[in-house]
User: What shape does this take?
Amino acid sequence: MASVGSVANFYDNAVARALNGTFKAELIHRQTWRTRDQVEYSIVEWIGWYNHRRLHSTIGDVPPAEYEANHYRSINTPRQPMPGNPDLTKPSTAHQPKERQSH
Assistant: This one.
């Protein structure tokens, strides 16, 4: 099996192999497939389940797609006004150093 990541990157290859092993154990080797179409349709369903419905304990028992969407929503949400600085277009001067006076 060729590496899916950069050359000699053990971690990338280990993650790919782990996912491939899970895929084979949970889907491919559990039944006898009659047609190629049956396999292909089942793979599409499994990938949908794996990304959109599978609860992942490491990320708070939510599906990976939901976790990713929440992450991007949190980093793309506009900043909320801070107390004492309701206008975000004008930075507060409360914590800025005073300008030096030239002599």
Summary: The CA atoms of residues 26 and 68 lie 23 Å apart.
